[in-house]
Amino acid sequence: MTEATALGASGGARHGGPAAEVDVQAEGARIAAAMGTVVVGKPDVVRLALVVLLAEGHLLIEDVPGVGKTTLAKAMAKSIDSEVRRIQFTPDLLPSDITGVAVFDQESRTFEFRPGAVFANLVVADEINRASPKTQSALLECMEERQVTVDGVTYELARPFMVLATQNPLEMEGTYPLPEAQRDRFTARVSMGYPDREAELAMLDDRGTVDPLTRLEPVADAAGVRAMVDAVTRVHVAESLRRYVVSLVEASRRSPDLRLGASPRAGLQLLRSARAAAALAGRDHVLPDDVQEMASPVLAHRLLLTPDASLARRTPERVVGDLLAAVPVPRRR
After folding, report:
1. Is CATH 3.40.50.360 what the domain over 3-208 is classified as, yes or no?
2. CATH, domain range 235-326
3. pTM over the 0.90 mark
4. Which PANTHER family does the protein's record reference (predicted)?
5. What is the mean pLDDT of residues 299-315?
6. Is 214 exposed, middle or buried (0-12, 13-18, 19+ CB in 10 A)?
7. How far apart are CA 247 and CA 165, in angstroms?
8. Is the pLDDT of residue 286 over 80?
9. Using CA atoms, how far apart are residues 251 and 316, in angstroms rounded to an integer?
């Protein structure tokens, strides 16, 4: 067994072999309920995080400080009994701190690879836009190809592998904008938003003495999540729905409000997310509603508005809504 294979072995077989039957809806509900004890009053946000996990994607959590971005990431990490690493992104963070480094061993006279923080099932990248662009780019290969290359040697990452990154809005001081190539690697973006009045009152009562994260017990493990992911890949997608996804992506490239539309990767991740949403709803097939539900979280953060659209106070989310209204929805025959 090579060193690269050994490091990735903890992720289990990637594909192939009979997969055990798993009730994605029931298992997903258990994880969501566990996360809901910590992330109060945000069931839609919790569900989106689960969809991204089962779509084998990565989640960008963007909002102002103090609304629970890191709490959401930690709650998901603790709900799943798997290897979790947290990286606090700062301006002095180095790429080798993330991916790992080859260190020369004086005794053996050889270089020994020491894995970085990215070698885990769930990686919480806290305040990712506070690190320099050079450090941010260290995640590009990890997120897309689920592997790390150091000194010409490739090391596979475990499966499941998910990056949950938090970031503050760009108008905050001391932040670096994420490049388009990295934003495109995030399957979806979610904004936490402020809790409603009742949820905020409950938070004041419950968290006055004890942090609910300390009481959160795992309700799933890495093997169970792998089984759920495999089940999601078997969800049926009709040909008409595939064409619908492609039509939405193509329409974004022709939109007069956009100077950068959705990439082919965006269409692929939209379809994967729709599959995961269908599985969590207890269905073995995708509906147009699944695609429409996931369109804004998956597409909006990848789109770049034209200067005129920005001056007109258009938003990427509104443009996605216009695309959904313009592209014909496939009908059952």
Report:
1. no
2. 1.10.8.80
3. no
4. METHANOL DEHYDROGENASE REGULATOR (PTHR42759:SF5), MOXR FAMILY PROTEIN (PTHR42759)
5. 93
6. exposed
7. 29
8. yes
9. 13
